[in-house]
Specification:
With 440 residues, the chain is mainly α. The chain has one domain (12-191, 204-433): MFS general substrate transporter like domains (Growth Hormone, Chain: A, Up-down Bundle). The chain contains 16 helices and no strands. The longest helix has 30 residues, at 138-167. It is globular and about 60 Å long. Keywords: Cell membrane, Membrane, Transmembrane, Transmembrane helix, Transport. Residues 225-440 form the Major facilitator superfamily (MFS) profile domain. It is found in: Cell membrane.
């Protein structure tokens, strides 16, 4: 074990970690609170699917501009502005609900605005980490970051959101506003310049976006991972667009209350915490390709389980294992993307990646609502599981050898100019493409 495997990651990382925890706790509360509040206004699967579309549509529309901004502006300042905006939107919505105004349209508007801020925040937050820790420390830093995210977002946040909705809808939305505001304070304490130095002639945002798209398109491993993640997220969005109708209420198949619904969702984070602790060890023991395959299996089983059982204990157990698989996948995929992408291109590459990976979420939410409205809830889960299973095809490309070749190409180009580094990565991908699929 090298010294960097145990060395502290530094005070700046601790502050970023604190801001991440607070921000994700707000996310966890709101992602449960908003659908539970919406169920009080409507029981239509299509209307709830539309709410999911509003939450995720900004990823489809704004990912690329957000990436260009992350490579042009100070990434920390973008994160500060985005969290400030989310605090303002949630706070205003809480005030409106406290005044007795009940409207699904208001939830749609708030979800859309918060989604725009989320795109800006998340794109910059993934791009800032290589400026906070050394690249050899990225897998360890990502594991810790994702561990905190999952504890806050999926373990503490959902049950807290369910409990707060049971007390008052306004309180359930006021709490995230306060948490996002505290995250702003924590992130503001991180000192330093987080704007990437740009060399060469001045370029337009459109040209910057094109450069990021070309880099991802030429990188066979990254573009395949992006497509796999996109398909898995489409399936997941189908499930969770309507899952609240399947789970909550005395007449629902699971028959849960608001509070127990939050607890059920929190089981995912138990597995995710284990995954954050074990991800690097699992990858080292079984290889990254096999570890990604484990993630595919857990995604698929999670999506399909509600179609075959209404036992909340079984659903919770599957969610727990799925959380472990998701975390292992995330640590491997995000660390690889950060390691093989030149820093000057990282914001745009992250954005292009997430356009594929997250841009399909509104499509999934819409499909989930339409299928649920027309055929019932269980067919939604069957279709989602079938789509998730198709992601396994990407493992024919993302082999251990392909991953190693991509890392070697990035290391070879690390001392070159950004353009040269991108060219080295492209040449390596051509080499990988010439091999037979399935080589490990």
């Amino acid at each position: 074990m090298g010294r960097h495997d145990t060395a502290p990651l530094g005070p700046r990382f601790v502050r970023v970690l604190t801001a991440t925890g607070l921000s994700n706790l707000a996310d966890g509360v709101s992602k449960v609170a908003v659908p539970l509040v919406a169920v009080r206004f409507t029981d239509s699967p299509l209307a709830l699917g539309g709410l999911g579309v509003a939450m995720t549509l900004p990823w489809l529309l704004l990912s690329l501009p957000a990436g260009a901004l992350a490579d042009r502006l100070d990434r920390r300042r973008i994160m500060l502005a985005a969290n400030g905006a989310r605090a303002l939107v949630a706070g205003l919505l809480a005030v409106v609900l406290a005044a007795g105004v009940e409207s699904i349209a208001l939830l749609y508007a708030a979800a859309l605005l918060a989604g725009i801020a989320e795109v800006l925040y998340d794109t910059s937050s993934q791009s800032i980490l290589p400026q906070v820790v050394r690249r050899p420390d990225l897998p360890r830093a990502n594991a810790r970051l994702y561990g905190v995210e999952m504890v806050a977002n999926q373990f503490a946040g959902p049950p807290l959101g369910g409990l707060l909705v049971g007390v008052a809808a306004a309180l359930a939305l006021g709490a995230p506003a306060a948490l996002w505001a505290l995250a702003v304070v924590a992130l503001a304490s991180v000192r330093g310049e987080f704007r990437v130095a740009r060399t060469g002639p001045t370029t337009t945002v459109r040209a910057d976006i094109g450069e990021g798209l070309r880099y991802l398109a030429r990188h066979r491993v990254l573009r395949t991972l992006a497509a796999m993640t996109g398909l898995a997220n489409l399936a997941s969005s189908m499930v969770f667009a309507v899952f609240v109708l399947f789970a909550v209420g005395p007449s629902s198949p699971l028959g849960l209350t608001d509070a127990t619904y939050g607890i059920l969702l929190a089981t995912t984070s138990v597995g995710a915490v284990l995954g954050s602790l074990l991800a690097t060890r699992v990858a080292a023991t079984f290889g990254r390709a096999a570890s990604l395959a484990f993630g595919v299996v857990t995604f698929t089983v999670m999506a399909g389980t509600p179609a075959v059982t209404t036992n909340p204990w079984v659903v919770g157990a599957v969610f727990l294992v799925s959380g472990l698989g998701v975390m292992v996948w995330n640590v491997i995929a995000v660390s690889l993307r950060q390691q093989v992408t030149p820093d000057a291109l990282l914001g745009r590459t992250n954005a292009c990646y997430r356009l594929l990976a997250w841009g399909l979420q509104p499509v999934g939410a819409f499909l989930g609502g339409v299928i649920g409205q027309a055929f019932g809830l269980r067919p939604v889960f069957v279709v989602a599981a079938s789509l998730s299973a198709l992601t396994a095809l990407g493992l024919l490309v993302v082999t251990n050898r392909a991953i190693a070749d991509a890392e070697a190409a990035a290391e070879a180009g690390a001392q070159a100019e950004p353009g040269a580094a991108a060219a080295v990565g492209s040449d390596a991908e051509a080499t990988v493409a010439s091999r037979e699929p399935g080589e490990g």
